[in-house]
UniProtKB/TrEMBL annotation:
Coiled-coil region: none
PROSITE patterns: CDP_ALCOHOL_P_TRANSF
InterPro entries listed in its UniProt record: CDP-alcohol_PTase-I (IPR050324), CDP-OH_P_trans (IPR000462), CDP-OH_PTrfase_TM_dom (IPR043130), CDP_ALCOHOL_P_TRANSF_CS (IPR048254), Phosphatidylglycerol_P_synth (IPR004570)
Subcellular location: Membrane
Source organism of the structure: Microbulbifer celer
Keywords for the protein's UniProt record, in alphabetical order: Lipid biosynthesis, Lipid metabolism, Membrane, Phospholipid biosynthesis, Phospholipid metabolism, Transferase, Transmembrane, Transmembrane helix
Protein name: CDP-diacylglycerol--glycerol-3-phosphate 3-phosphatidyltransferase
Membrane topology: Multi-pass membrane protein
Enzyme Commission number(s): 2.7.8.5
A GO MF label: transferase activity
Catalysis performed (reactions): a CDP-1,2-diacyl-sn-glycerol + sn-glycerol 3-phosphate = a 1,2-diacyl-sn-glycero-3-phospho-(1'-sn-glycero-3'-phosphate) + CMP + H(+)
Length: 202
């Protein structure tokens, strides 16, 4: 494989991150115009792309400094865009949405505040707690889209509807606990980075 061809392949993870951003307007449009099945399908594509870009980067050693910043930033922007949409559709808990939004805003602010304003390099160390919170957030948001589309596949008289609603409630509660735990860990770390006591986010 030529060097130019290899260089193009290395951009796949970054392209998947940009894809998540590009799919925000179509998902919003489809949801607001009641194309719920299509909106859910695109959301699933986004969720899978989030897993795929990280896996490809690790598997084929396609990591880059730009990708390490773009991937989490794209995730936060996407999630922040979905929260008001699902609130409008009344399929996302208010408290969970607020805590999730605060966490995403705080983490997304790292790039403009630390990198662009303070012009200070920083590292990112993946933590299992953050991973679990992010995966749970995608599941809870996905259940919100599935809630809109459930009339397509879940009869209102079915006992499965009761199970679905209880699943949404349980996952939302678990997600809330994880988000609070992430904030408790991340906020002091952010302060330490601003104070130059640390240079790595977890």
């Amino acid at each position: 494989m030529s060097q130019a061809s290899a260089s193009r392949w290395r951009q796949i993870p970054n392209a998947l991150s940009f894809l998540r951003l590009l799919l925000i307007p179509p998902i919003v449009y489809l949801s607001l115009h009641q194309y719920d099945g299509l909106a859910l399908s695109l959301y699933i594509v986004v969720a899978l792309s989030d897993y795929a870009d990280g896996w490809l980067a690790r598997r084929y050693h396609w990591q880059s400094r730009f990708g390490m910043i773009l991937d989490p930033l794209a995730d936060r922007i996407f999630v922040l865009s979905m929260i008001p949409l699902l609130w409008y559709l009344d399929t996302l808990g208010l408290l969970y949405g607020i805590v999730l939004g605060v966490r995403c805003l705080l983490q997304a602010s790292v790039v403009p505040v630390v990198l662009l304003w303070l012009k200070r390099p920083f590292g990112i160390r993946a933590m299992w707690l953050q991973l679990f919170a992010s995966v749970t957030a995608y599941i809870v948001l996905g259940l919100g889209f599935a809630d809109e589309a459930r009339y397509l596949w879940l009869p209102s008289t079915s006992g499965a509807r009761f199970i679905f609603e209880r699943t949404v409630g349980a996952m939302t509660f678990i997600g809330l606990l994880l988000e609070v735990a992430v904030l408790i860990r991340f906020a002091p770390r952010y302060l330490h980075v601003l104070q130059k006591r640390k240079n790595t986010f977890e």
